[in-house]
Amino acid sequence: MAKKSRQTNQKKKPSNSKRSNKKSASSKSPQSKSVNFIKTSYRKLLNWISQTWTRKITAVLLALLFIATLLMYVVAQWYIISNQDRPYQLGATFIQSYAEFYDLDPQETLTAITDDLGFDHLRLVSYWNVHEEEQGEYDFSDLDWQFQHAEERDVSVSLAIGLRQPRWPECHMPAWAEPMEMKEWYPHLKDYMQAVIERYKDSPVLVSYQLENEFLLDVFGVCPDHSRERLIDSFEFVKELDPTRPVIVSRSNNATPSWPVGEPRADIIGASIYKRVWDGTLTNRYFEYPLPPWFYAFLAGGAKLTTNRDTVIHELQAESWLPRGMDMRTASTEELYKSMNPEMLANRFEYGRATGIREIDLWGVEWWYSRKVNDGDDSLWEVAREQIRYTNELNRRITVDD
Questions:
Q1: DSSP readout, 17-72?
Q2: Each residue's pLDDT tens digit, 41-96
């Protein structure tokens, strides 16, 4: 009986061992379960991809896209970090005719921009059709008082020059030159550019020129010529007349910017940022560019690495973009606020700062002032004031830390 009992116990031992193994398996850590799940999922994914060539090609393309995006992000973060100790410079584009478009007094408007809001940098324009309305007769009275205003306040100026300058129709050609072929009007343009440069190059507040605003953007504006040869010749002409100041040349497009490695090799690269616009081509609705701030940090960082040139934001959208046929002066507040309202404006300032680019010119300040003076709505103006104050505080912290 004892022998039989021992045999029975021996038979039971394997059964106890099985129960022990089951208990051990059920008590695996969550980490082990996660690892097993990942391995299983990975094997299933590889098996799924390997079934057809289409899936293989898709997987390769997605992998390349991931790697490219990762590299772009790394460059962007490098650029942002490398500029974190540089103070911001907030500026504004001022155009006398645009202030007059809103029935504003131009001098009062510019005074409010610099003295009330506190902008200490301006981008001014030198429209050919304004200052040489009659062939060979120059009238710089408008630009003279703007430079005098800046000099009295020690406000720095970047001067737009050439045929293509900010605001529609982009190319501002005098009526007397419109019937001419380029070989005829271009020498007259160079004469005018020379008159502009020689008149203002001795101004202590002039810090740069911006040549031919968004010159290669041939799908926007009414312009007779977009040849790179003319841009190169104009660049060399400006450098010959005033070799002491940098010349800004802007990228070709907000959505698909060209890489600034060709000729002319700009001293400074200009970038425009428009976030919310009316798309009248495909969707007939407002469209928000889904580009994060680090995308523009990548563009600036990539340009710095490949050309050793700095980038400035010469146009940061800060006004509404209406459907074609609507007027900024008569559109309803509801319609205007669909593409730019006080909250969007505050976010736009933050977006600009988040790019890591330190020199930022706002676009649309005349409209803010019109809303305040003509429409009794100072909400945009006050948001801008607060954002400028906040940016100045950031600059003070940077200075103290240094």
A1: HHHHHHHHHHT--HHHHHHHHHHHHHHHHHHHHTT-HHHHHHHHHHHHHHHHHHHH
A2: 878 878 887 888 888 888 888 999 999 999 999 999 999 999 999 999 999 999 99
User: For residues 346 and 388, is the Cβ–Cβ distance under 8 A?
Assistant: no
Q: Please tell me whether residues 137 and 283 are part of one structural domain.
A: yes
| DSSP H or E stretch at residue 237 | helix 228-241
Residue 277 and residue 349 in one domain: yes
135 and 33, same structural domain?
Answer: no
8 and 110 together in one domain: no
Chain center to CA of 265? 20
Distance between CA atoms of 13 and 209, rounded to whole angstroms? 92
Strands 247-250 and 268-273, by their bridges, are parallel
64 in any annotated domain: no
Domain that holds residue 387: 87-401
Number of domains in the chain: 2
The mean-pLDDT minimum among 8-12, 172-176, 392-396 falls in 8-12
Alpha-carbon distance of 248 to 161, in angstroms, equals 10
| 103 and 168, same domain (yes or no) | yes
Q: In angstroms, what CA-CA distances link 165 with 130, 177, 377?
A: 12, 17, 30
The owner of tokens 């970038």 is 271
**Residue 132 belongs to some domain of the structure:** yes
Question: At which residue do the structure tokens 């408008």 appear?
Answer: 142
**What span, in angstroms and rounded, lies between the C-alpha atoms of 109 and 107?**
5
Q: Are residues 292 and 368 in the same domain?
A: yes
pLDDT tens per residue, range 179-202: 999 999 999 999 999 999 999 999
